Amino acid sequence: MIKLIATDMDGTFLDSSKRFSMEFFDIFAELRKRGIKFVIASGNQYFRLYQKFLPISNEMYFIGENGSYIAKGAKLIATNTLKKEQVKAIIKLVEEHPELNMILCGVKSAYCLNKFRNIESVIHMYYCNYQFVESYDEIDDEIMKVAIYDANHQIIRYADAIAQGVNKGIKATTSGNEWIDIQNEDINKGKAMKILQKELNIKPEECMAFGDQMNDYTLLKSVKYSYAMANAVPRIKDIAYGIAASNDHQGVLEVIKKEVLSQ
Predict the structure, then answer these.
(1) Residues 6+ apart with CB under 8 A from 123
(2) What is the pLDDT of residues 53-79, one digit of tens each?
(3) 134-168 pLDDT, tens per residue?
(4) Rounded distance, CA 175 to CA 187, Å?
(5) Residue 7, CB half-sphere, CA atoms under 13 Å: how many?
(6) How far apart are CA 163 and CA 2, in angstroms?
(7) CA–CA distances in Å: residue 1 to residues 149, 203, 204, 205
(8) Across the chain, which distance is largest between two alpha carbons, in Å?
């Protein structure tokens, strides 16, 4: 019996226009009646995720920043932050590639230099709480993740150099064709899911999850019923329990209706 369902957002739950079907609200109501928990597990900022699902946000669980922020509605459960010296080293590394944009993702807000204001429309798409600063020295916050954005949509060109350049204990993970997320090596969506499973006393074989990119790998490995989207990268499809229709064909909702609600 499924007791918890988790889904990635971009490329999975959201279609190519960054929207989800309003049918979800009816499906969520039925899941809630059955006592099934629903988790949004994303690389996006928690505040943005919470805002997107109003007015039902307080009834949902959120794994934000690829596992660095875990919450039940407005209640914080756990965070995972970088050390200040680690953040400084990452900034120095990324600044070797001035064509790349950088966002520091903190517990209270996200931060971006004024010189990157040209990508504010992109930042607004993924972040609800964000500030522009003249210098990173102005930031008074704990940083969970450094997000690197390539406006040319070819982030893979930088993946090896950045991954090899980060200090021990830090990892760099690509997300789609535009982003590299840098955070503590021991944190990911799968570890965050295990924290929730323990908190809720729910076993992996009672969980279902959906994803499409490599930052969903550990999420899918943390549950028995893992679904890769039809548009997922090959390695995600290789480890999946099943394949769902693409994000543009409401694959997540279709599987839930067929495999959970029809039972």
Answers:
(1) 103, 110, 112, 130
(2) 999 999 999 999 989 999 999 999 999
(3) 999 999 999 999 999 998 888 888 888 888 888 88
(4) 15
(5) 23
(6) 37
(7) 40, 10, 11, 8
(8) 55
How many alpha carbons lie under 13 Å from residue 216 in its C-beta half-sphere?
34
Coil, strand or helix at 119: helix
The confidence score (pLDDT) of residue 109 equals 95
Residue with tokens 């004024």: 114
Given a cut of 80, is residue 127 above it in pLDDT?
Answer: yes
First to last CA, the chain: 9
Tens-digit pLDDT profile for residues 80-101: 999 999 999 999 999 999 999 9
* Residues facing 171 on adjacent strands: 183
Q: Express each pLDDT in 15-39 by its tens digit.
A: 999 999 999 999 999 999 999 999 9
What type of residue is 10?
D
- In terms of Cα–Cα distance, which of 23, 3, 20 is closest to 11? 20
Phi, psi dihedrals of residue 223, rounded to the nearest 5°:
-130, 160
**Taking Cα atoms as reference points, which of 62, 65, 86, 66 lies closest to residue 75?**
62
Contact 222, 193 (CB under 8 A): yes
> How many angstroms separate the Cα of 192 from the Cα of each of 39, 116, 189, 220, 242?
11, 31, 5, 12, 22
Contacts of 234 (CB under 8 A, 6+ apart): none
